[in-house]
Amino acid sequence: MHNYKRVILKLSGEALAGEQGYGIDPNVIQSIASQLKEVTELGTEIAIVVGAGNIWRGMAGSSQGMDRATADYMGMLATVMNGLALQDSLEDIGVESRVQTSIEMRQVAEPYIRRKAIRHLEKKRVVIFTAGTGNPYFTTDTTAALRAAEIEADVILMAKNKVDGVYDSDPFVNENAMKYRELSYLDVLKDGLAVMDSTASSLCMDNNIPLLVFSITEEGNIKRAVQGNDIGTVVRGNS
Asked: Is 12 annotated as a binding residue?
């Protein structure tokens, strides 16, 4: 068993909504914060990329006829709200954290500066990356892949709130769906597996960044993931 030294945790907006499916569930965000505290106590440097599906979905907005770029910018702003809520929960239990945004809003958070982010991590602060990449048409999955490459993270931990890994078909529809223990990014792209979008998968593959897909609903799973326990599904550059 080994501890990863520096990780990126990808949190979907839905993971923050919990059972209610919308908005931010205070109990869920407190549970995530306390799990993150456990991880920082291991000495692991942790950065987080948050989604916004619990507040706003750019794709849904554009399907309703809204300009895609506008819809995506609204999603980016929603990720900042999630990031601030997470920061508040972390600081509440004594975990130092910083929110960085890809769209400048200095009164609210720091602008994303790579070297500054790395410095915070070295000082064992949790860094929360918000506002996606700052560009429309890119998902927060792609943000996680990009930031992981930039800060030289050992792994991306993709926390899911409904599934505990990658399956060959939808486990909610097919009760015989098979869970993969290990996959390559080529498999993911070739078979169209809904792990992350193709831009993010390609970026991870090209930069040889492993991905661990696991369930966040089981208490203590973030720590297990960081310690390299056998949970979820591992996706690697080449299998």
From this structure: yes
